[in-house]
Amino acid sequence: MKYKWILFDADETLFHFDNFAGLKHMFAKHGVTFEKAEYDEYQIVNKQLWVDYQNGHISAEQLQTRRFALWSERLSISTKELNKQFLDAMADICKTLPGAIELVEHLHESKINMGIITNGFAQLQKIRLERTGLLPYFSPVVISELVGVAKPHPKIFEHALEHMDSPDKNQVLMVGDTLESDILGGNNFGFDTCWLNHHDKIHPEEIRPTYQVNSLIELLDKVKRW
Question: In this structure, are strands 95-96 and 15-16 parallel, antiparallel, or unpaired?
Fold first, then answer.
């Protein structure tokens, strides 16, 4: 096969990440009806915090706590505790995306090494990998929160490469759903990239993936032809 390593993003690449469902699940335990209006209010804050985090302007801890500042005041619960409960809720509802298990098993049988580079948070990653049975297949699992920088920063890709025993970059493919972190970061570091384009969007001229697919099932078909 063309690649000896395939690196995956986690959220919306291997795992379905339904923010809204996770928040509803969490707030229901506090007797709060969390609907679209509340979610839209949360997302106004959350989306900007993620941009700031990926750009290196705030830390992982600042993102995780600031997104719950309003709800901390309303419920008189610390932002840190609310964030923990949210990540627990996301673990409770975790599901792999269609085709993920089949793709990982095929790559494993084909002796292709697999790793994960994620801007998600440590509390959630290992639990999801364990619960879905995927943990044995991935090494390294590189988490931005623990490295100290987020994709697309080159240092997180450098960290991963070192833990892969520094293969030739031409032998590595980065797969992810987010152009601004997974694809731009992989491109700039010298990896080939595959954009998991769930919604048939058009990529901007300045971010051009090596490949694009609409699903992991399509990626599996492509891998089998390589």
Answer: antiparallel
pLDDT digits 0-9 by tens, 25-58: 999 999 999 999 999 999 999 999 999 999 999 9
What lies within 8 Å, CB to CB, of 128 at 6+ separation is 10, 15, 91, 94, 134
Q: Is 9 a catalytic residue?
A: yes
**What Å distances lie between residue 1 and 49, 112, 116, 204, 207, CA to CA?**
39, 8, 20, 29, 25
* Residue in 98, 119, 110 with CA at minimum distance from that of residue 137: 110
Give the CA distances from residue 187 to residues 116, 147, 152, in Å, rounded to whole numbers and listed in that order: 16, 20, 9
Is the fold of 5-16+95-225 the same as that of 19-92? Answer: no
Strand partners, 175: 8, 194
Domain boundaries 19-92, corresponding CATH code: 1.10.150
What's the one-letter identity of residue 143?
I
| In the chain, domain spans | 5-16+95-225, 19-92
Per residue in 167-180, pLDDT (tens digit) is 999 999 999 999 99
3-state secondary structure of 203: coil
Q: What is the pLDDT of residues 105-161, one digit of tens each?
A: 999 999 999 999 999 899 899 899 999 999 999 999 999 999 999 999 999 999 999
**pTM of the complete model beyond 0.90:** yes
- Of the listed 9, 11, 177, 192, which one is catalytic? 9
- 5-16+95-225 folds as Rossmann fold (3.40.50)
